[in-house]
Specification:
The protein has about 775 residues and is of the alpha/beta class. The protein has 20 helices and 29 strands. Helix 3 crosses helix 4 and helix 6 packs parallel to helix 8. This is Protein arginine N-methyltransferase.
Length: about 775
């Protein structure tokens, strides 16, 4: 068994190797296989659920004709047909057709479905009989309490929806109380490499030809997976067994796409390894980097064919030893075990949805303060900002510092250290509205701080101080900068400042990026209440993929990978104030942003990642921006990013553009966000040929001959000229030899056309959280 927190390593035992094991009076064949794997230092066994006898019977019933020739379309023998019908009606397995019969035999076993099952066969009969076989196998796996059941690789892109529907039907057949996890074996690209030699019916060339362009190869298997998980409604019982048999592509975006998917197993055959200079098995640098990163999700590594002597040195154990080496040297895992890192601090909270704080409405608990105060980076940055501000003042001046929202006092302590470092004459006022935290402040004043600190109880928006401040220090930032009402709070606190006073922070910006994450989407969809899909959450991202790329995209008009939404600066001296020094309304704190993102690789949009960056003073700042945080405030863990979810996924093809609209809105009682997105495809990225007589478009955009019936005949109930896609002369000649010609034209209407750099709209989301109906922050 695996020790500690090590990832499990499984031994793959194919059907041909099962014949090497014999049942004894003490052990069944399955138990013998498991015991042998344990002796060879494996943690789990991955083996087929059925035997060759089952395959033979299925072929006889469903494929063999009276002439003995395999043909799914020929007339079958009457007795065979009767046998097949009885089986389709619900006949189960025979004893010699399965490898496992008892509950204890299924322990520590990952079962594999028959690899000859073709749910996506081009032949309808094979598809339906394969589906019956799959339901029978998965039902038997559930009966034995098998935890994971791996399905064969989908091989035919043209019939991926057939595969997906059959998997969903198999889930339904198991019933709501089944706990069996179904995993789809998926290569990163090129599914034709996995066409089994036992495949009974071969697809037409057009459905197998995916070798046109590398980008097409890299997307086709992910697209099949996306079809399957969508048809299964993102079931939490569905996962991926990622097959690394083909060499990994060097395109980083292609690999990152799989990081956002529920990868539970990695299939790693000996043939994927290459020999090093001494003949030992190693992996390519691209595969090493990919595995080191994906290991943080704790997948089971399934090693196959390791005893076949593929490499000259090292023996069978060299493969598992190499995997352990990658695990030990994984930067992600090392960070999780290193105290003081964000990954170590947040263990157990990865991809966990948390509601943002409502600091104005709720008084925080002491434990919440305790967690925040564990971050030394944030408080050092604040101390450094105050020190710089004090150092820039006249040495003989007296400085009044106001800490508004003092909590339990960490900012007050940082200000006192900055005063001591700068050797300046200064006093501190600490304002706090949390009546419970105010007790802690009193204790710290008496025990630690002394007369330099005056504590004041009350809301910073209404309380009065005995004198004006030179420096206002606040810790009101949220994951999106302004989402915990820092602008509104500081509007009220600006009354404390002298005309030349400064605020720390001086400004902060909000940033956004489009995100794909099956896990987060499933978490949001776990509740039928629509408000869950219209609520921003605080999340430490792990199993996610940022869909956007740098650069301007095909049209050269898109922004960067992560884009700025808006900025707030303090103090603002251009706002009209009432007699109490407060703004008449909150309209000046509304914001809107329109962002254009380039999507280089096909993906599914599940929401948006939000970040913030703050300037405290001069060049001292705070940042959770993914590309800049390590340069501005490295190892800071006080804030996780924010996640704006979508109610429904939005598919984005490669080289598409995503236009995102985000609003920060307010009324007299609350502040809320609304969000919306549109997807476009640049016209210059589209090559749409004209479909002429006798032809149709193949999956790779090339022409392929199809029967005349592939082009639909016009309906007499429709007004043909209004169809738009058909030329007016298409039906002029209604003779038997006439063939309609499909004219595909792109719209050139002014509202859709931007010259040769135009784009075509291909999708949109719904407007999320209109009028703050689902989520808001109370004033």
């Amino acid at each position: 068994m695996s020790s500690g927190t090590q990832i499990p390593i499984a031994l793959h035992v194919p059907p041909s190797q099962l014949e090497q094991f014999q049942a004894t009076s003490e052990l069944s064949i399955a138990q013998a296989v498991v015991q042998d794997a344990y002796e060879r230092k494996y943690d789990v066994v991955c083996m087929p659920l059925t035997t060759e006898a089952w395959k033979t019977r299925w072929q006889e019933m469903c494929l063999t004709t009276s002439s003995g020739v395999e043909s799914p379309v020929a007339r079958r023998d009457a007795k065979l047909e009767e046998r097949a019908e009885r089986w389709r009606a619900g006949e189960g397995f025979r004893r010699d057709e399965v490898t496992i019969t008892k509950l204890d035999e299924a322990e520590n076993v990952i079962a594999m479905a028959s690899d000859w099952i073709e749910l996506d066969s081009p032949d309808e009969g094979v598809r339906f009989d394969s589906e019956v076989a799959l339901r029978q196998e998965i039902s038997y796996a559930a009966y034995l309490n098998v935890h994971t059941f791996i399905l064969p690789t989908p091989r035919n892109r043209a019939h991926a929806p057939d595969y997906a529907r059959a998997v969903n039907a198999a889930f339904a057949a198991c019933g709501p109380h089944s706990f069996v996890q179904v995993s789809i074996r998926i290569p990163i690209f090129d599914p034709t490499a996995f066409r089994s030699s036992s495949s009974f019916v071969h697809a037409p060339p057009t459905t197998q030809s995916v070798h046109g362009s590398p980008s097409s190869d890299f997307s086709v298997t992910w697209e099949m997976w996306d079809i399957i998980r969508t048809a299964c409604a993102y079931s939490t019982r569905l996962s991926i067994t990622l097959d690394l048999t083909p060499p990994l592509p060097a395109t980083l975006g292609v690999l990152q796409r799989w990081a956002a998917e529920p990868t539970r197993h990695i299939f790693l055959p000996a043939s994927t390894f290459i020999p090093n200079a001494k003949g030992y098995p190693v992996l390519t640098k691209a595969t090493q980097a990919f595995l080191r990163d994906i290991i943080k999700y704790r997948p089971t590594i399934i090693l196959s064919n390791t005893a076949a002597g593929v490499h000259t040195n090292g023996g069978e154990s060299a493969y598992s030893q190499y995997v352990r080496h990658l695990e030990k040297t994984s930067p992600a895992l090392q960070a999780m075990e290193t105290p003081g890192t964000l990954e170590n601090f947040a263990k157990g909270y990865m991809d966990y949805l948390q509601a943002p704080l409502q600091p104005l409405m709720d008084n925080l608990q002491s434990m919440t303060y305790e967690v925040f105060e564990k971050d030394p980076v944030k408080y050092y940055q604040y101390e450094e900002a105050v020190f710089r501000a004090l150092s820039d003042r006249q040495p003989d001046s007296r400085t009044v510092i106001c800490v508004a929202g003092a909590g339990r006092g960490p900012l007050v302590a940082g200000c006192l250290r900055a005063i001591e470092r700068s050797s300046r004459n200064a006093v501190v006022y600490a304002v706090e509205k949390n009546v419970n935290a105010f007790v802690t402040l009193q204790e710290r004043r008496d025990a630690e701080w002394g007369p330099l600190v005056t504590i004041v109880y009350g809301d910073m928006r209404t309380v009065e101080l005995p004198e004006k401040a030179d420096i206002l220090v606040t810790e009101l930032l949220g994951s999106f900068g302004d989402n915990e009402l820092s602008p509104e709070c500081l509007d009220g606190a600006m009354r404390f400042l002298k005309p030349d006073g400064i605020s720390i922070p001086a400004s902060y910006t909000a940033h956004l990026a489009p995100l794909s994450s099956s896990k987060l989407f499933m978490e949001v969809q776990s509740s039928p209440d629509q408000k869950f899909a219209e609520t921003p959450y605080v999340v430490l991202f792990q199993a996610v993929n940022v869909l956007s790329g740098d650069g301007g995209g095909v049209r050269g008009k898109c922004g960067g990978r992560v884009q700025e939404c808006w900025e707030f600066e303090h103090p603002r001296r251009d706002i009209p104030l009432d007699s109490q020094g407060l703004p008449y309304s909150n309209a000046h704190n509304t914001r809107s942003a329109t962002l254009n993102f380039h999507i280089p690789h096909a993906g599914v949009l599940h929401g948006f990642a939000g970040y913030f960056e703050a300037v405290l003073y001069a060049d001292v700042g705070l940042s959770i921006h993914p590309d800049r945080k390590e340069h501005i405030s490295p190892n800071m863990f006080s804030w996780f990013p924010i996640f704006f979810p979508l109610r429904d996924p939005l598919y984005l093809p490669a080289n598409s553009e995503l236009q995102v609209f985000l609003w920060r809105l307010t009324d007299k009682r609350k502040v809320w966000y609304e969000w919306f997105a549109e997807a476009f495809l640049p016209k210059s990225a589209i090559a749409i040929p004209v479909v002429s007589a006798g032809g149709s478009l193949s999956s790779n955009g090339l022409m392929s001959p199809t029967p005349m019936s592939a082009i639909p005949a016009p309906s007499p109930l429709l007004d043909a000229p209004a169809l738009g896609l058909w030329s007016s002369s298409a039906f002029a000649d209604r003779s038997a030899n006439a063939t309609p010609r499909l004219q595909v034209e792109l719209s050139t209407s002014p509202e859709n056309d931007e010259g040769e750099n135009g784009r075509i709209k291909i999708g949109q989301t719904t407007l999320h959280n209109p009028s703050g109906r689902s989520s808001w922050i109370g004033l």
